[in-house]
Amino acid sequence: TKKQDVLVRGQILHYLTDPGPGDDPAAWEYFDDGALWIVDGHVQSVGPWAVVTANLAPQVREAASFHDHRGKLVLPGLVDTHIHYPQAGVIGSFGRQLLDWLNDYTFPAEARFADYSEAERSAAFVVDRLLAHGTTTASVFATVHAHSVDAFFSAAEAKGLRMLCGKVLMDRHCPDNLRDSAASGRADSQALIERWHGRGRLGYSLTPRFAPTSTREQLQATGELFQARPDLHLQTHLAENPAEIAWVQALFPERSSYLDVYAHYGLLGPRSIYGHCIHLSPAERADMAAAGAAAAFCPTSNLFLGSGFFDYAASTAAGMRVGLATDVGGGTSFSLIRTLGQAYAISQTHATPLSPMRGWYLATLGGARALYLEAHIGNFQPGHEADFVVLDWAATPELAWRMDRTQTLAERLFALMILGDERCVVATHVMGERV
Ligand code: GUN
Ligand code: ZN
């Protein structure tokens, strides 16, 4: 059945491309009194209110669902390019860096997903919280249990979300109750692909946890599947922490780098998304860019776990696709607005600070591009799926005070990125409809 037409009035910002380090103004469109006209869940037109509405017959307009958000910022739905839904319950676990954090907190939490009801309750909670934070698409790690993917995709499907998810593949260096095998991991992944991939807006992402927890045999089997199915995604972790990197070197002495492990087994290519990518050489960045692989920049996680400072400027200058990510539960918030603030802080440790014009690109179209979903989401080009978020510039007294003292759009967008958070989210819409 056709959805009701939707008309939105507000301050509309969306991106046509990456503004780049020079903030190219041709990269975005901003309509201070804008209209977004949505037919059957897809963008029909966007532009100045007067122009868009002049083209609407009165009876068509009257039949539409109208959302008056004048004075509020309307953006494409935020895109979280790397999150672990089973880790909502370990956010804020004290005192460990990556490898100890996994052993002490994360693996025990994931082991509880052997119980389907834990997976179901967590999936419902996380989908609800993503939407409350303005995130409409994410690339999601489940656990090693196949049914953890069923739980997540069921919850996402019920809300009509465009989501990527996959069962974690992990056949060594982990607790017995979280270990699969090369054969079972492959069979489970294949069954989940059959069940879920391409159903509605859902897509399957092959999910080897990271090189240390998969045997060569498992990496090989996963690479074969990925190479045979260019419609699938693949997600894993890369170069997050010095101890992790040293471990990979010890486990794969025959490979020239951490990235080379993935490249060798056929896990590097378009639609592969690597979390973190902090400690990479220029050659590894160039190889990722040439392969069309993407990095998920996870600032709150990188600070919380003491992992290091991702070099956004160098990564994008090398031609890599980069998306923004919370990495909950290494990350400390579901909010991509807070995450942008921390991305800025990290960018200050390198040569080029992350500008607001580029920051909001990163949280929207940049994420869609990192996930190779820009044909469907990420901006308001006609035909795109109408997922969007409405933000209140003045959701807190501090924001209101600061906004009163700004002159330009860039200043306001920057203040929002630094002072803003989920309190700014007024409404989240999926395929036009408010959720
Ligand atoms: N590397 C391997 N597994 C994980 C994980 O769950 N979180 C993070 N941040 N890094 C990882
Ligand atoms: Zn992660």
TrEMBL record:
Domain of life: Bacteria
Alphabetized GO MF terms: guanine deaminase activity; zinc ion binding
EC number(s) on file: 3.5.4.3
A biological-process GO annotation: guanine catabolic process
Pathway annotation: Purine metabolism; guanine degradation; xanthine from guanine: step 1/1
Catalytic activity: guanine + H2O + H(+) = xanthine + NH4(+)
Enzyme class: hydrolase
UniProt cross-references to InterPro entries, sorted A to Z: Amidohydro-rel, Guanine_deaminase, Metal-dep_hydrolase_composite, Metal_Hydrolase, Metallo-dep_hydrolases
Residue span, Amidohydrolase-related domain: 73-435
Cofactor descriptive note: Binds 1 zinc ion per subunit.
KW Metal-binding (keyword) present: yes
Function noted in UniProt: Catalyzes the hydrolytic deamination of guanine, producing xanthine and ammonia.
Protein name: Guanine deaminase
Species in which this protein is naturally found: Zoogloea oleivorans
